[in-house]
Automatic annotation (TrEMBL):
<keyword id="KW-0472">Membrane</keyword>
<feature type="transmembrane region" description="Helical">
    <location>
        <begin position="177"/>
        <end position="200"/>
    </location>
</feature>
<feature type="transmembrane region" description="Helical">
    <location>
        <begin position="127"/>
        <end position="157"/>
    </location>
</feature>
<feature type="transmembrane region" description="Helical">
    <location>
        <begin position="66"/>
        <end position="87"/>
    </location>
</feature>
<feature type="transmembrane region" description="Helical">
    <location>
        <begin position="34"/>
        <end position="54"/>
    </location>
</feature>
<protein>
    <submittedName>
        <fullName>ABC-type organic solvent resistance transport system, permease protein</fullName>
    </submittedName>
</protein>
<dbReference type="GO" id="GO:0005548">
    <property type="term" value="F:phospholipid transporter activity"/>
</dbReference>
<keyword id="KW-1133">Transmembrane helix</keyword>
<feature type="transmembrane region" description="Helical">
    <location>
        <begin position="212"/>
        <end position="235"/>
    </location>
</feature>
<dbReference type="InterPro" id="IPR030802">
    <property type="entry name" value="Permease_MalE"/>
</dbReference>
<keyword id="KW-0812">Transmembrane</keyword>
<dbReference type="GO" id="GO:0043190">
    <property type="term" value="C:ATP-binding cassette (ABC) transporter complex"/>
</dbReference>
<dbReference type="Pfam" id="PF02405">
    <property type="entry name" value="MlaE"/>
</dbReference>
């Protein structure tokens, strides 16, 4: 894995730069994942604000701080982590099965015989697309979460959009959005590295492809949660 990471980071700055493959992968990561990500994070935001209101009323008999707390939770954790886990399931599984199929059908060996570096050809465009796509889709997911929370606050809790934004300004800082983008980029970078690692190590047969896909989803999900802890702990010193 360390070798693959080093070769990928080196390949980012080494020609040839495969722009067409990069934009194809960016379309796959960003555009084709957008609907499912937005759909899921909106419901996650709705559940978050309803649960926050319920428990805050139980503890302090008042839920006036719910919009602010919900906005902070969405920007610092919910939007980025839910988006990354969804991308891990969809994009990571897709990459692992694709690269794994190429490995067992000896297409990867054919690339080497033609003098084409498999890492530069397969991993680097996917890595760059996932870094940029993860960052962009995290921003969209956060905005969708905020609008969903705002709508629920108005119809269920009775807070107008103006009251929601006022409460949000008390808790949210511009750095929260920047840190969310950094998290999205880091999470996005992990997914293709894990997927291609297991894809290159894929064993013969459908069972091997299935095992590579399963391992990709499991390992990338664990890696995302661990990285989230490290980044959150680091960012806590920057506030």
């Amino acid at each position: 894995m360390i070798t693959l990471i080093a070769e990928t980071l080196t390949g980012v700055f080494t020609p040839p730069f495969r722009r067409k493959e990069f934009f194809q992968q960016l379309h796959f990561v960003g555009n084709k994942s957008l609907f499912i990500v937005v759909f899921c994070v909106c419901f996650a935001a709705i559940v978050t604000i309803l649960e926050s209101s319920f428990h805050m009323k139980m503890v302090i008999q008042n839920d006036s701080m719910v919009p602010g707390f919900a906005a902070v939770l969405i920007l610092r954790e919910l939007g980025a982590i839910v988006t990354a886990l969804l991308l891990s399931s969809r994009v990571g599984a897709g990459y692992a099965s694709e690269v794994g199929s190429m490995q067992i059908t000896e297409q990867v060996d054919a690339l080497k015989m033609l003098g084409i570096d498999p890492v530069n050809y397969l991993v680097v465009p996917r890595f760059l697309a996932c870094v940029l796509g993860g960052m962009m889709i995290t921003i969209v997911a956060n905005m969708a979460c905020i609008f969903s929370a705002m709508a629920v606050s108005q119809f269920y809790l009775g807070y107008t959009p103006g009251m929601f934004l006022t409460s949000m300004q008390r808790f949210v800082d511009f750095k929260d959005l920047i840190f969310a983008m950094i998290k999205g980029a880091c999470f996005g970078g992990v997914i293709p590295l894990v997927a291609c690692y297991f894809g290159f190590r894929c064993q013969q047969g459908a069972e091997g492809v299935g095992r590579a896909t399963t391992n990709t989803v499991v390992v990338s999900s664990i890696a995302i949660i661990v990285i989230d802890f490290i980044l959150s702990y680091t960012f806590s010193y920057l506030y």
